[in-house]
Write a structure and sequence with these properties.
Order of helices and strands: HEEEEEEEEE
Family: Belongs to the intradiol ring-cleavage dioxygenase family.
GO molecular function: ferric iron binding; oxidoreductase activity, acting on single donors with incorporation of molecular oxygen, incorporation of two atoms of oxygen
CATH architecture of the largest domain: Sandwich
Low-confidence stretches: 13-35
Helix content: 10-25%
Shape: globular
Radius of gyration: 22 Å
Distance between the termini: 81 Å
Protein name: Intradiol ring-cleavage dioxygenases domain-containing protein
CATH class of the largest domain: Mainly Beta
Structural class: alpha+beta
Number of strands: 9
Strand content: 25-35%
CATH topology of the largest domain: Protocatechuate 3,4-Dioxygenase, subunit A
Largest sheet: 5 strands, mixed
InterPro entries: Intradiol_dOase_C, Intradiol_dOase_core, Intradiol_RC_Dioxygenase
CATH superfamily of the largest domain: Aromatic compound dioxygenase
Number of helices: 1
Mean pLDDT: 84
Keywords: Dioxygenase, Membrane, Oxidoreductase, Transmembrane, Transmembrane helix
Number of domains: 2
Length: about 200
């Protein structure tokens, strides 16, 4: 027995086959965007103000505003860092604050043009930038494990200077949790999450 299927029905089936994956994937992207469109809720036990630290000798003022701070064609391991800048209560975002970052290259060297930059947070205090995993440098007791320096500015005023470290320093003396990024590797890219809780300050 032959079953007759109209041309219009075939067209509708084909459209459904094509559009359903798009809707599913699009919904996933929208869901991910929603996560970034609100300030995260942080438990009081995890609301640890960022530890103030020295900036070291390699800071340069007025770095360019850019979300990618490495040159094209670099040989480093790709790293994407994202997070929120919040006030001491961990409930209010510092919207339109500036994250001023600088780091060593994948060869452990500081440069004037690259491996540094400034990123402005959105209305929820969110920031994101692309870089590479820096190489540690120094020897013996002078060894510095891989890290990223940063300053937070608001309305032209410096609020805090500190550093972000990778989880390989976890448990070592002097490396508190508020220093350490949460790391995940996916498809050859390192993703790091790090919220910056600014200590008490006055505008």
């Amino acid at each position: 027995m032959k079953i007759h299927v109209s041309k219009s029905l075939l067209i509708n089936i084909l459209i459904a086959i094509l559009i359903i994956p798009v809707l599913i994937f699009g919904g996933f992207l929208i869901s991910k965007d929603r996560d970034r469109n609100s300030t995260p809720k942080i438990a009081s036990s995890e609301c640890l103000p960022t530890f103030r630290d020295g900036g070291g000798p390699y800071y340069l003022p007025n770095s360019p505003f850019q979300t990618k701070i490495v040159p094209d064609g670099n040989n480093g391991e790709k790293l994407i860092v994202g997070g929120y800048i919040l006030d001491t209560s961990c409930s209010d975002p510092l919207a339109n604050s500036v994250l001023d970052i600088w780091q060593a290259s994948e060869e452990g060297e500081y440069e004037d043009e690259y491996y540094r930059g400034r990123i402005k947070t959105d209305k929820n205090g969110y920031f994101k930038f692309e870089t590479v995993v820096p190489l540690g440098y120094g020897e013996g007791t002078a060894y510095r494990p891989p890290h990223i320096h940063f300053k937070v500015w608001l309305d032209g005023k410096e609020l805090v200077t500190s550093q972000m470290f990778f989880d390989d320093v976890k448990g070592r003396e002097g490396f508190n949790d508020e220093f350490i990024m949460q790391i995940e590797e996916k498809n050859g890219v390192i993703y790091a999450s790090h919220n910056i809780i600014v200590p008490d300050f006055e505008i």
